[in-house]
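Page 42, continued from yesterday. The earlier attempt failed because a stray header line got pasted into the input along with the sequence. Redoing it now with the clean sequence only.
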Amino acid sequence: MRWEELTGDQFPQAVEQSEGVCLLPLSCIERHGHHMPLGTDYYIARELCNRAAKLESSVIFPDFIFTQILEARHCIGTIAIDPDLILRLLDNVCREIARNGFKKIMIVNAHGGNAALIPFFMQTQLASPRDYAVYHAKAFMALDHAGDTETSALHVIRPDLVHPEQIPADGEGNPLGRLKTLSEQGVGSTIWWYADYPTHYAGDASTASAEKGEQLLNTTAQTLATAIRAIKQDSEAKRLQDEFFAASKH
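This time it went through. Structure tokens are written below.
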């Protein structure tokens, strides 16, 4: 069930049918090489939530694209939001979801750039008491970017937006290693992604196929459905959260 497709009269029944679980798909708008749409992560997040919700009843919140993608600001078409605004907006959205009856919110992330954002956001939930619990499920953390994995998925979801003829054949998806000296010493840098992948293409999309994409989407959706089922059955996270806030008053 998609939040935006429900009528006001249908909404209370949807909350009950989903057992108070709402999926919050996170993605972003950014360059995906020469052959993939800017909304690649958006399409993948939506598809995974749709498939998982069919397996385990839940309501899907409208696509949340305003996440961490500052490393792509040099690429045209990117929408990069100020860090403090991202956190405030995401927290506000969760509070609104809960106000409408969903006391269990599962973040479903399909964007690799959120790898640091989400754990930090989860910790910020301990800043003040709340009447709901937030959970996090790793949805589609591809090892590439616009490479075999993501391209295979889009071959299934929106094949009309994939342009195989634009896939580079010159090794563009290989890391440039411009900060190799630092990385070999275990030293990180804020500019590491740009140093290796300035065109926002990592991997090899030439091996992508719809068959691979269907298998990946189905497997991930089943994993998400299992997570949704576990969240529905969970009562301990919220109990411990309440216990924590009570103890924090000293």
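Notes: Strands lie at 21-26, 59-60, 104-109, 133-138.
Reminder to self: strip header lines before submitting.
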